[in-house]
Amino acid sequence: MRKVSFAEFGGPDVLELLDAEEPHAGPGQIRIAVRAAGVNPVDWRLREGQVLGAHPLRLPAGVGLDAAGVVDEVGEGVDGVAVGDPVFGEGFDTYAEFAVLSAWARMPEGLTFEEAAGYPSVVETALRVIREVGVRPGQTLLVSGASGGVGSAVLQIARDRGIKVIGTAGAANQDYLRDLGAVPTTYGEGWVERVRGLGHVDAALDLAGSGVIRELVELTGDPRRVVSIADLGAPEHGVRFSGVAGSVPDALAEAVDLIARGRLHIPVEKAYPLADAAAAHIDSQAGHTRGRRVLIV
Q1: What does each C-alpha distance from 142 to 70, 233, 249 come to in angstroms?
Q2: What CA–CA distance (Å, rounded) separates 209 from 196?
Q3: What is the DSSP string of 207-243?
Q4: Angle, nearest 10°, between helix axes 248-260 and 120-133?
Q5: Cα–Cα nearest to 92, from 121, 113, 70, 127
Q6: How far apart are alpha carbons 127 and 124 in whole angstroms?
Q7: Helices (H), the chain
Q8: Residue 7, Cβ neighbours under 10 Å: how many?
């Protein structure tokens, strides 16, 4: 099978599309014929060799956590799923023609494989950081870097829970944030005052790692009311860095419910062939994403 991997840490150029042995489902796992794989910031952070604790790597390593496809192998002790079922979920080395998943759910009606591949890690992360920051219905959540995959999920989940959201993004994405139920504003010079002009902020999320932790603490008045998924230096300011996943099966179940109720939709901004994984990483690192990027297998 074909698989994207890298033998050394570095830039996008270290990614190679190689022939590799097919993986097989172990106990409690399934294997899928991958139709699409989600591209997440954690993928290129790991490729660069960033120490994220929860994802230790031994080289050479494959790439990718999220995928959607068709079940073609069921491991020991697994029930409720059969060969031929369309599923989406999280596993490892998903930038490949076959991948093993450790958490999965049947694909919701109406989703394409490309769309479904963009949900697993994104929804788990969104649910986790909303929980960790402690924001409640009726309160206001500030989201820095709100137009990407996790931001898109946070905005819609918060809206479903009765939480007001102020979201920062580039000028081109202001209408997008508004459509997702947020009060939008641009980043850049004067952004703190623009946020203050929109009302009191009870809690804040840093999803982009753009060096705004100090300002988020200033706006909330308490570092315990700020969580980052993108700035490894956040703990220096007393802010929690959230990098360890919670229950992916629970997150997938909630994603299915939200999608079925029409309360969650994350668009695919761009789909790339598997051979263009490096280009997908370059674009992901550049930011300004609206929704998700995925690889087509």
Answers
A1: 38, 19, 27
A2: 21
A3: -S-SS-HHHHHHHHS-GGGEEESS-TTGGGGTPEE--
A4: 100
A5: 121
A6: 5
A7: 41-48, 113-116, 120-133, 149-160, 174-179, 191-196, 213-220, 248-260, 277-286
A8: 11
Count how many residues are written for the chain.
297
- Contact yes or no for 181/120 (Cβ under 8 A): no
Q: What is the structure's pLDDT at 54?
A: 52
Tokens standing for residue 12: 């996008």
| CB burial of residue 259 (10 Å; 0-12, 13-18, 19+) | buried
pLDDT value for 53: 52
- 2-6 and 61-62: which strand pairing? antiparallel
Q: Roughly what angle, to the nearest 10 degrees, separates helices 41-48 and 277-286?
A: 100
Residue 291: the pLDDT is 85
Q: What would the mean pLDDT of 115-128 be, rounded to a whole number? A: 96
Q: Summarize pLDDT for 56-106 with one digit per residue, the tens.
A: 688 999 999 999 999 999 999 999 999 999 999 999 999 999 999 999 999
Cα 90 to Cα 8, 161, 201, 295, distances in angstroms: 24, 25, 33, 15
CA 231-164-199 angle, to 5 degrees, is 85
Structure tokens at 29: 């796992």
Tokens representing 161?
């829970």
What does the alpha-carbon distance between residue 122 and residue 184 come to, in Å, rounded to a whole number? 21
The C-alpha atoms of residue 206 and residue 145 are separated, in whole angstroms, by 7
- Of the pLDDT bands very low, low, confident and very high (cuts 50, 70, 90), residue 55 is low
